[in-house]
Design a protein that fits this description.
10 strands; alpha+beta; 10 helices; Beta-lactamase; 357 residues; two-stranded parallel sheet; 35% helix
Length: 357
């Protein structure tokens, strides 16, 4: 663990050659054929730090195809949105408002007796044993709480892995209990506003005025901690804020990555941040998270070698298209790094001096 964190520190101290330079390639030119062939309907952003190299919206925001899709339209980030409650809990832990070993019943009333064995760490890592949500159109927070109260555990907390949205709901309820605020306000004040996510909002009631600008194709819900909408640019800003220290310390993030032993998945992050990849030396290479709801699909990918952040959000119901586009963008990034390194190596080579006869 200590070795992993030490090596993880190293990668943040070594800036890539191209980190603050404009890209030497045209990202859009390298993916536009796939966009056309797959019927992609969504928005793609590629950037590094505050620089945006590509921001392109393709298709329509409505099923009737009368409203052209723009960068200001909102999508459901699906499981990527689980990061918001994860960050919220981690923020409160940093302020000593809670401990990961605390039992959830310390903060949430009215839960069954079996909840006495569930800790905050369990709900951050999907090892709580909480059951699956029984979905219905317009399901709200009260419905979700009732399902939890009437449900049974899939396994004893800490002995298995089950990816369930109830973990996210309980995180939001804990935040509300500690802060005395509705989670919608807390996330707006401490994440959306801090990261300058000007389009993001948390829907808490069934009101069409909330949904203006939301792309069609999502499943209608009104659940605390879950029903969140963002623009692709909002998600790009969120990723930047995660790693520039605006929301959490980088030490907190690094400590949230290793430790998974129950999911059966390769490279899954311990806390709810998707998955990560390290090189042979243990240095962080990338992390990524995807999500769906149900025709809305999202991929958030951060390449720590180049510094590039890729945000892909769509409403065409085809997540495989996003991965195909991401892979092509990653190839483009590799070409950019090679070009930048060649230029750097060439500039470092000594030049022959000539003298006049």
């Amino acid at each position: 663990m200590k070795l992993f964190l030490l090596l993880l520190n190293v990668v943040f101290l070594i800036l890539p050659v191209c980190a603050k330079e404009a890209p030497s390639i045209d990202y859009w030119d390298n993916i536009k054929r796939t966009v056309a062939e797959t019927g992609f309907n969504g928005t793609i952003i590629v950037g590094r730090g505050e620089q945006i190299f590509l921001q392109k919206s393709v298709g329509y925001a409505d099923t009737a195809k009368t409203i052209p899709l723009t960068g200001s339209h909102l999508f459901s980030p699906g499981s990527v949105g689980k990061e918001f409650t994860t960050v919220s809990i981690m923020q409160l832990a940093a302020k000593n408002k809670l401990k990961y070993q605390d039992n959830i019943t310390k903060y949430v009333d009215g839960l069954p007796a079996w909840a006495n064995n569930i800790t905050i760490q369990h709900i951050l890592t999907h090892t709580s044993g909480l059951p699956d949500v029984q979905w219905k159109r317009g399901i709200n927070t009260a419905d979700a709480i009732q399902q939890i109260q009437q449900g049974t555990l899939a396994f004893e907390p800490g002995t298995g892995y089950k990816y369930t949205n109830f973990n996210v709901v309980v995180r939001a309820l804990i935040v509300e209990s500690i802060t005395g605020q509705r989670y919608a306000k807390y996330v707006a004040d401490t994440i959306f506003n801090v990261a300058d996510m000007t389009g993001a909002f948390h829907q808490t009631k069934d009101d069409e005025t909330y949904r203006r600008g939301v792309v069609s194709g999502d499943y209608p819900t009104n659940i605390t901690g879950l029903t969140i909408y963002v623009t692709p640019l909002d998600l790009f800003k969120f990723e930047n804020a995660l790693w520039n220290g605006s929301l959490l310390s980088t030490d907190q993030l690094k400590q949230a990555l290793p430790g998974d032993s129950l999911s059966g998945q390769t490279n899954r992050a311990y806390f709810d941040f998707g998955k990560f990849l390290v090189d042979d030396n243990g240095s962080l290479v990338s992390w990524e998270h995807d999500g769906s709801n149900p025709s809305h699909h999202t991929i958030k990918y951060h390449d720590f070698i180049s510094g590039n952040i890729f945000i892909l959000m769509s409403s065409d119901g085809n997540k495989s298209t996003l991965y195909k586009l991401l892979n092509e963008l990653k190839v483009s990034t590799s070409e950019e790094i090679k070009t930048a390194n060649l230029k750097a190596n060439k500039s470092m080579q000594p030049t022959a001096e000539t003298s006049a006869d």
